[in-house]
Write a structure and sequence with these properties.
With 200 residues, the chain is mainly β. It has one domain. The chain has helices spanning 24-27, 45-51, 192-198; strands at 2-12, 57-68, 71-77, 80-83, 85-90, 93-98, 100-101, 110-112, 115-125, 132-133, 140-141, 147-156, 161-168, 173-177, 183-186. Strand 14 and strand 15 (183-186) form a beta hairpin. The longest helix has 7 residues, at 45-51.
Length: 200
């Protein structure tokens, strides 16, 4: 018997999240904020939202185990990471800049007698430069900040599964969806300043 499950994180920028002078290009219409993602995802939602440039990053972890007579006989995981496109508008000028996706990290699953734990990290950065002061040497960065999430999914032989956000960038906002596409969790506190000055 194959038991399959998944967990998905969508990272997006709400209008109230940008602070300081960095807010100016958003207010001027050069860049855009994101509308809140839906409360329910269907099978085609990620591809559709990605095409609509409706999020900054999506981390989709999908995994399964094969069980025979109560014992785990096989397992594997898949999933993917999607990065949004940076769109620049200046009067009649429109340009799209593909984001820089980081390699998807999948450490070896942790196998126990009645469960397997899978972990996946996905994320990236926009391709446009973002010159700014940062807290550590060399105290100046040109590349934009990284947005990422690390998800964990544990599948049990009795059919139930558990999810966990192991880690995430402090910005933007991250929403979590279960295997049925239902919104189950929202990141509480986000810090643009910590992300902008400390994530690179």
């Amino acid at each position: 018997m194959r038991i399959e499950s998944s967990i998905t994180a969508i990272s997006w920028i709400p209008s109230e999240a940008i602070e300081g002078v960095t807010k100016l290009p958003f207010e001027a219409g050069f860049f855009h904020y994101d509308a809140p993602p839906p409360d329910q995802l269907d099978e085609s939602a990620l591809d559709r939202l990605h095409k609509e440039d409706a999020f900054r990053e999506a981390n989709h972890l999908r995994a399964w185990i094969d069980v025979t007579d109560g014992k785990i006989t096989g397992y594997d995981h898949a999933g993917r990471s999607l990065i949004g496109v940076t769109r620049l508008k200046a009067g009649p000028f429109h340009a799209a800049f593909p984001a820089i996706s980081m390699p998807v990290l999948r450490p070896e699953p942790v196998v126990k007698p009645t469960s397997v734990r899978f972990v996946q990290t996905g994320g990236g950065r926009m391709s446009l430069p973002a010159p700014r002061r940062v807290r550590d040497k060399p105290f100046v960065q040109i590349a934009s900040s990284l947005a990422w999430t690390t998800l964990a999914l544990t599948i049990h032989t009795d059919g139930h599964s558990e999810y966990e956000v192991v880690g995430a960038s402090p910005f933007p906002r991250h929403w979590l969806y279960d295997q049925n596409g239902k919104l189950v969790s929202k990141s509480g506190v986000i810090s643009f300043e910590d992300w902008y000055r400390g994530s690179y």
